[in-house]
What does this fold into?
Amino acid sequence: MEKEGTETRNQSRLAILELANMISVPMSLNAVVRLNVADAIWQGGSNTPLSAAQIISRVLHSGGDAENLQRILRMLASYGVFEEYLSEGERKYSLTDVGKTLVTDEDGLSYAPYVLQHHQDALMRAWPLVHEAVVDPNKEPFERANGEPAYGYYSKQPEMNELMVKAMSGVSVPFMRAMLEGYDGFQGVERLVDVGGSGGDCLRMILQKTPNVKEGINFDLPEVVAKAPQIPGVTHVGGDMFKSIPQGDAIFMKWVLTTWTDEECKQIMKNCYKSLPEGGKLIACEPVLPEHSDDSHRTRALLEGDIFVMTIYRAKGKHRTEEQFKQLAISVGFPSFRSFHVDHFYTVLEFQK
Ligand SMILES: C[S@@+](CC[C@H](N)C(=O)[O-])C[C@H]1O[C@@H](n2cnc3c(N)ncnc32)[C@H](O)[C@@H]1O
It folds into this structure.
């Protein structure tokens, strides 16, 4: 009994040490992305295990410290990003399925820009202030650290906006492939508006897959659409969703409501309602929180994203449950609600006027 108690205490101390040192994990992940390690190992699909010295010779023109890279790779191997092979004292690394998400695909996309986007200096400055969101939720830690809210700050830094667009594409394109396989709610829609559509990837994919959608309106902040690429059938429109939203047969919105407070969400949804015809749909794809907390990758990714929103965008912006989304929609007049679970991270929420 006594022995068991000691063992439990020891495991608890190890667990708290692991948590206290956890910052090494995302920062090392950021380091391997900055060093382009995944593409160096992948080499067009070979994924041959390489030593740190071999990786360095592929990613740096000269110099580099192989021992330090090995320390980073070894730690990330224990988090399932790399597979480690130990033979006669030499360590080599290939990519696991998790590591492969960082490899640049034929369209130039991966999850790597999302990792970089989350670890830019301005965002990092906000993290030591998370407790301030508890003390006073009227100002998010990002604003406390940088003097203004995140989107206003990005708008003055073109490279931050560019990285945001790239990060969104890297995450959204694989999701859209899954969504368009499992969801047919765009039937009968000819003019579709994407609110907060970033570079227009979601609309491009919807138009390619759904011939009845003839016209796409990609609506985002003026500085974002100014850099968006030409896409056949898509018109980029700059504006502010809190003021008004272009009219369409249906409105699509992905990863937008999460960022805002309940009152701000109501304002956005009210503007959507006004721009829809009778029977028109608002189709929102959002991370939706489960009711119960557990230690699955899904629940952790959703709960961690919730704290990210609280820290960077709005102290009272949040990941919500399906019921919370439903109540927001009812409060602005949408009588009908359906949900579709076509992806692990996002849920498709359909609100009909
Ligand atoms: C998390 S991103 C999602 C981008 C895209 N929907 C996707 O999922 O790939 C949120 C988007 O909302 C846009 N946004 C923020 N404030 C906005 C506003 N007031 N009016 C219109 N768009 C806005 C941002 O520029 C950004 O592109």
Observations:
- The chain has a mean pLDDT of 95.
